[in-house]
Request: fold
Amino acid sequence: MSLFLAMFGFSLTMSITPGPVNMVIVSSGVQHGFARTIPFVSGATIGFTLLLAAIGFGFYQILESYPQLLHYLAIAGSLYVIYMGYKIASAPAEEIAIDERSLPRFHEGFLLQWLNPKAWIACVSGVALFSSPHSQLSLVYFVFVYFWVCYTSLTLWAFAGDKIRHLLGGTSRIKRFNLVMGGLLILCAVYLLYSHFLPGQQAL
Reply:
């Protein structure tokens, strides 16, 4: 029971706290509503779970041998987050019901997790904490727990976005919200990207 609580607490903390994926989900909830955000939530959850399994069952050793992979990943991830931020900021609030161009897709949620530095940190940390050199059963259990906690947490963010949508009401308020959320995503990504070009600095 104590191991389960530790896995649950770790998964919940890493999944529910704000990050690039959560920000995209809440923005999509505001822009498109709860139901149309679920494909992105599903893609992000499945993408993260497969990343966790890949790191746990072999890729962890590659990261130990080539730690610079995380550095390059952070750069690629930052560029992709900037792209997602631009999509959110430029989304036309006047076409909430019919606009498909700004709707986050399943594959975008999947890809964003594989390019999300926070996701990689969570996976590496989780594997280090809950894997065992003698048995892979605990890691399998951890992946299973993380899947359900992650799916629930991201779904709650989509639900929150949908509720904020009703509170905002008019399209002008939604447009301002999109600009703020997209701008915050871009600023976070630019800071992360900038930190990787500072001499002697590593963001991860």
The chain has a mean pLDDT of 81. The CA atoms of residues 6 and 130 lie 9 Å apart. DSSP finds eight helices and no strands in the chain.
